[in-house]
Amino acid sequence: MAFEIVAKRDSETVTMRRNSSLMAIAKARVWASEGWNVTIIVRDETALSAGAFLPFLTALPDRQPEMALAS
Fold it and tell me: CB-based burial of residue 30 (10 Å sphere; 0-12 exposed, 13-18 middle, 19+ buried)?
């Protein structure tokens, strides 16, 4: 299963791919904590539902990052 992380801030866009859901979520949390708007795109029809990832996508205590999961 492939995961694509898209981080956007102002006029910048960064795209990266990871094979591990854990690594994709970790990368997304780091980028979001630095003020980026992050979307994780799942590139597999047999992927878990978005609800399975929501506990890992919760906002950090001192910030309200914008993160989303798309398929």
Answer: middle
